[in-house]
UniProtKB/TrEMBL annotation:
It comes from Stratiformator vulcanicus. Its cofactor is pyridoxal 5'-phosphate. The keyword Flavoprotein does not apply. It is an enzyme of class 2 (transferase). InterPro entries: Aminotrans_II_pyridoxalP_BS, Aminotransferase_I/II_large, LL-DAP_aminotransferase, PyrdxlP-dep_Trfase, PyrdxlP-dep_Trfase_major, PyrdxlP-dep_Trfase_small. Pfam families: Aminotran_1_2. Its EC number is 2.6.1.2. Residues 46-399 form the Aminotransferase class I/classII large domain. One of its GO terms (molecular function) is L-alanine:2-oxoglutarate aminotransferase activity. PROSITE patterns: AA_TRANSFER_CLASS_2. Keywords: Aminotransferase, Pyridoxal phosphate, Pyruvate, Transferase. It comes from the Bacteria. This is Glutamate-pyruvate aminotransferase AlaC.
Length: 412
C-alpha cells in the first residue's frame, strides 16, 4: 500500500481544520426534529409549527408601504452607516423616554443592530475573552450561552425561574468564584420560561453589579409583549443602570418584523462604543430602506403593537384553556410569545426530545423540547403561540388525539 505522501495530490483526503471555537459548540439538538418537519412538509403534510418564536403575521401596512417607497430612492441602495441612521437612533431614544422615562443620548448611548441577537453576540465579543466568565439564565436561550463561548469565555448557568434566588446565586458566585464573573446576562420576560420581574429586581442587580464589579447585558426582546396589564420594566430604569450595563431591544416581536433584522443596543456609552468598534469592522449597517421603515413603525404604529399584543393574549388563552381541557394545566405566561409547559405524567418519563418527536410524528405539531435550553429545561416543552387561534385549537385537538391512550396528570 502506498503512503499518503506517495498518492497523487487529488487523492489525498483534504480535511478542513475548523477553529477550536467551532469545535466547542455542542451538536445541534433540534437537528432531527427539523429534518422530520421538513420531510413532512415536502410530503404535503400540514405541520402546525409552534417550534420557533417566529411571528407569522405581517408588519403593519404603513411600514411595508414605507419600505416600498424607500426602495424607489436609489440613495438607499448604498452602504449605510454601521451604527444606524441618526433619526432612527433618535426614535429609539424617544421611545425609551416615553415608555420607561429613561433619557438616552442617541449619538453615544444607542446603536442599531442587525437584529438584537447580532448585537448581543458581538457585545459578548467586545466584552469577553479567554479566562472571562459570564453568568447566564437557566434554562438558557441558546445564544446567551453560545455567544459567550464563541467569544472564548466561560459560562455559568443559574436558575432564573425564581428571580430572587437568581440574585442570591449571583451574589454567592461573585463571593466564591475567582476570577469573579465579568458579565451577568438577564432576559426578562424570559425565553423560554416566561419568568417576569418587577423593577426592584433591577435595582438590586445594579447594586450587586457595583459591589462586585460586573457588567450587565439585558436582553429585552419581549419588551412589548405583555399581558393582563403587566408592564415589563426596562433594566435602564434602575438608578445607576447606565453605569454598569446595556440593553437589547428588537423590532422582531412587537412589530412583527423578524425577517427585517433590526434591533438596538442602548445603555452605557463605553459598552455601546465597544460594540460599535466591532461592528465597524464586521458590517456596513442595516439596509437603509429597512431603517427608514423602522422609523415609521416606531413613530406611528403603537396601535399596531397593541393589536399584536391583544392577538397573542387571546391565543395564549385559547391554547392554555384547550390544553387544560385535556388535563394539561399550565401556568399562563404574563409576557412573551411562549407557553412553558411541564410535560405531564406519564409522558414526562420519556424525556422532552422523544416527547417532542412523538408530537411531531403523530400529531403533526412541532414544538421545542425543553432540553434544547439546557439541562434545566428537561421535563418541559416550549410552545410558541405564533400560529393563529384556529390553528392553535387544531393543535390542541391533534395533541389530545395523540395522547389519548394515557391519561394526563401534571406532577408537582
Ligand atoms: C430572548 C431573545 N432574544 C433575542 C432574540 C432574537 O431577536 P432578533 O430577531 O432581534 O435578533 C429572540 C428571538 O427569538 C429571543 O427570544
Amino acid at each position: 500500500m502506498r503512503s499518503e505522501s506517495e498518492l497523487p495530490l487529488d487523492d489525498v483526503p483534504f480535511t478542513i481544520p475548523v477553529a477550536d471555537r467551532v469545535k466547542r459548540l455542542p451538536p445541534y439538538l433540534f437537528g432531527k426534529i427539523n429534518k422530520v418537519k421538513y420531510e413532512k412538509r415536502v410530503a404535503g403534510i400540514d405541520v402546525i409549527d409552534l417550534g420557533m418564536g417566529n411571528p407569522t403575521d405581517p408588519p403593519d401596512r404603513r411600514v411595508s408601504d414605507k419600505l416600498s417607497e424607500a426602495l424607489g430612492d436609489w440613495r438607499n441602495h448604498r452602504y449605510s452607516v454601521s451604527n444606524g441612521l441618526g433619526n432612527l437612533r433618535k426614535e429609539v431614544a424617544k421611545r425609551y423616554f416615553k415608555k420607561y422615562g429613561v433619557s438616552l443620548e442617541p449619538d453615544s448611548e444607542i446603536l442599531a443592530c442587525i437584529g438584537s441577537k447580532e448585537g448581543f453576540s458581538h457585545m459578548c465579543l467586545a466584552l469577553l475573552g479567554p479566562g472571562d466568565t459570564a453568568v447566564v439564565p437557566a434554562p438558557t436561550f441558546p445564544i446567551h450561552a453560545y455567544a459567550v463561548m464563541l467569544a472564548g469565555g466561560n459560562v455559568i448557568q443559574l436558575d432564573v425561574t425564581d428571580p430572587n434566588e437568581f440574585l442570591r446565586n449571583v451574589a454567592y458566585t461573585c463571593e466564591h468564584l475567582f476570577p469573579k464573573p465579568k458579565v451577568v446576562v438577564v432576559n426578562f420576560p424570559h425565553n423560554p420560561s416566561g419568568t417576569t420581574i418587577e423593577l426592584d429586581f433591577y435595582v438590586e442587580l445594579v447594586k450587586l453589579a457595583k459591589r462586585y464589579n460586573f457588567l450587565v447585558m439585558s436582553d429585552f426582546a419581549y419588551a412589548d409583549i405583555c399581558y393582563d396589564g403587566y408592564k415589563a420594566p426596562s433594566f435602564l430604569e434602575a438608578p445607576g443602570a447606565i453605569d454598569v450595563g446595556c440593553e437589547f431591544t428588537t423590532m422582531s416581536k412587537g412589530y412583527s418584523m423578524a425577517g427585517w433584522r433590526i434591533g438596538f443596543c442602548a445603555g452605557n456609552s463605553q459598552m455601546v462604543r465597544a460594540l460599535g468598534t466591532i461592528k465597524g469592522y464586521y458590517d456596513y449597517g442595516i439596509f437603509q430602506a429597512v431603517q427608514i421603515a423602522a422609523i415609521i413603525a416606531m413613530r406611528h404604529c403603537d396601535d399596531a403593537v397593541d393589536e399584536v399584543v391583544k392577538e397573542y393574549e387571546q391565543r395564549r388563552d385559547i391554547f392554555c384553556d384547550g390544553l387544560a381541557r385535556l388535563g394539561w394545566e399550565i401556568e399562563r405566561p404574563k409576557a412573551g410569545m411562549f407557553v412553558w409547559a411541564k410535560i405531564p405524567e406519564p409522558w414526562n418519563k420519556m424525556g422532552s426530545i422523544p416527547f417532542s418527536m412523538k408530537l411531531l410524528e403523530e400529531a403533526n405539531v412541532a414544538v421545542s423540547p425543553g432540553r434544547g435550553f439546557g439541562e434545566e429545561g428537561e421535563g418541559y416543552l416550549r410552545l410558541a403561540i405564533v400560529e393563529n387561534s384556529q390553528r392553535l385549537r387544531q393543535a390542541v385537538k391533534q395533541i389530545g388525539k395523540c395522547l389519548k391512550d394515557e391519561p394526563l396528570a401534571v406532577s408537582d
